[in-house]
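User: quick one, sequence for these tokens?
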């Protein structure tokens, strides 16, 4: 087992140095491969030469039947395992890739959960004061919260991308730089509402928070003057949704889904939306077109005189 553990360590270093894999993805791969090694240990396998295709198939089948493990999680774990075996073949640790024929289960096509433009507006108003009304706000932290939510909706950014933003990533008031999965950089325009909210935060809030620490390039700071965490943004969104009294579930990804859906409903080309979201493949973005098609079907069915039953 020690040799397998060393091979896993080598693979993770390869992903870090050669592939530039994002920290969160790397941690997920580390957990997934630890699960794989644990399963191998249970059946007495201590060396890569003892692993057969049947062993990998049985591991995959065990994942499928494991309670509480959804298809996407199974697919992610198997991706880590398949990548590991490919790496061992490439490095000459194994003579063949025993995982090559083991395919992950097909995940059911889930439509992204977007909320309406009206619900987004209610949520944004509940998160903090209007940028031109901050003088009357006793709680300046809510000025920061409003800027975060406005920026999430304006750019379609992932929460991790907002957390990792530095001051230098504000290229100018109308453009920001985001770093997505695999540290892939993209440039995204920012609408005037988000521009105003971020400007208010930079003038009214950030200078006082920055004095509490030794200096950080982070754009959004917590009340100790340090970089805001993903968990903190989750809490900000949760508190804002509760204040807004919305009858729908709201998560950080709700802003990203709504951003994409509203752009497509407004007539944006799917490849433009792909670029803005930072998707490697347009296929990933096209799932949002299903949302708008479903909305069209619903309107058609309720409005067309020859469609009603």
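Assistant:
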């Amino acid at each position: 087992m020690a040799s397998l553990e060393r091979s896993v360590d080598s693979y993770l270093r390869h992903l870090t140095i050669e592939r530039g894999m994002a920290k969160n993805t790397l941690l997920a791969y580390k957990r997934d491969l630890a699960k794989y090694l644990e399963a191998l240990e249970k059946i007495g396998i201590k060396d890569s030469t003892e692993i057969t295709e049947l062993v990998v198939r049985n591991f995959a089948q065990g994942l499928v039947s494991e309670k509480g493990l959804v298809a996407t999680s199974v697919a992610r774990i198997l991706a880590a395992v398949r990548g590991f075996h490919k790496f061992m073949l490439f490095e000459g640790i194994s003579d063949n890739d025993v995982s090559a024929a083991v395919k992950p289960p097909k995940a059911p096509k889930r439509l992204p959960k977007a909320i309406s433009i009206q619900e987004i507006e209610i949520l944004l108003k509940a998160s903090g004061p209007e940028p031109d009304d901050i003088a009357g706000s006793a709680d300046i932290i809510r000025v920061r919260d409003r800027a975060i939510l406005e920026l999430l909706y304006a750019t379609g950014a992932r929460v991790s991308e907002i957390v990792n933003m530095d001051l230098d990533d504000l290229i100018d008031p109308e453009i920001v730089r985001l770093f997505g999965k695999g540290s892939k950089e993209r440039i995204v325009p920012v609408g005037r509402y988000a521009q105003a909210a971020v400007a208010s935060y930079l003038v009214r809030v950030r200078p006082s928070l920055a004095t509490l620490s030794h200096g950080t390039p982070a754009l959004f700071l917590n009340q100790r003057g340090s970089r805001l965490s993903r968990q903190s943004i989750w809490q900000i969104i949760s508190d804002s949704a509760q204040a807004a009294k919305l009858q729908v579930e709201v998560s950080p990804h709700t802003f990203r889904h709504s951003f994409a859906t509203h752009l497509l409903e407004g007539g944006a080309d799917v490849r433009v939306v792909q670029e803005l979201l930072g998707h490697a493949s347009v296929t990933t973005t096209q799932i949002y077109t299903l949302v708008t098609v479903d909305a069209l079907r619903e309107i058609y069915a309720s409005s067309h005189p020859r469609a009603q039953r």
